Amino acid sequence: MSEKIWQIEADRLILDNDTFIDVETLESITSFKNKIFTFQNNELIPVEIREDGYYKLVPTGSAPTLEINGIKMHRSKDIDPLTDAKLKTQLVVAANDQVLDTCGGLGYSAIFALKAGAKKVISTEKSHAVIKIRNLNPWLKKYADKRLELIHTDITREINKFEDGMFNSVIHDPPRFTSATGNLYGRKFYDALFRVMALDSKLFHYTGSPKKIKTKDKFIKNTMKRLEQSGFKTLCFHDNLQGIYAQKN
Fold first, then answer.
1. pTM of the predicted structure, to 2 decimals
2. Per-residue pLDDT tens over the stretch 94-105
3. Domains in the chain, please, with CATH?
């Protein structure tokens, strides 16, 4: 978020009059190109959590991305996390929208929904570890806004509490499809999404692209079919965003 130049004196990096990092400590982390460190209690500590998996912040050319068990949660090849979030959000969010951001992660989509002029953004996240990592990442704090409501919850349950037609736009950005996350790609959840969306509202559903879309990947086709069965129209797979655009008309 910012850069600063500090002095080096007698093999120490001087942060202020009373705080410094010795050269041995700095050298000890130079081999970790894929980690971010924070300086706490005179120690350089990696921003990582080991709970039900291995979660860590990973540097990019702009804001950090989240990595879980070696899998990056944002696209990072030829695009940075902020640009990715911006493009997805611009596709569906308009000024004065009430926005649902499922599986909010580090909150980058929520940030750009606010920037797009959303009236309200409800962002949900289920994972304790992800929330801990998010709280250590300063990017979301920079955009603290009373229009943003962060909820620690399982969206597949929380969605039943929302009123019919409550949202004008939805960013559905689930983890990649596995047996553990399959309900986020299921017909029951898509029916619930359709219910809470207003008429003429828009959905972006990140899916990733397990295979090239030009091969008519069965996973993408089946996901679009379930969305269509739930009532969504104007479905289109955006190859550059690796996700599906849909409307409730």
1. 0.89
2. 999 999 999 999
3. 7-72 (no CATH), 81-248 (3.40.50.150)
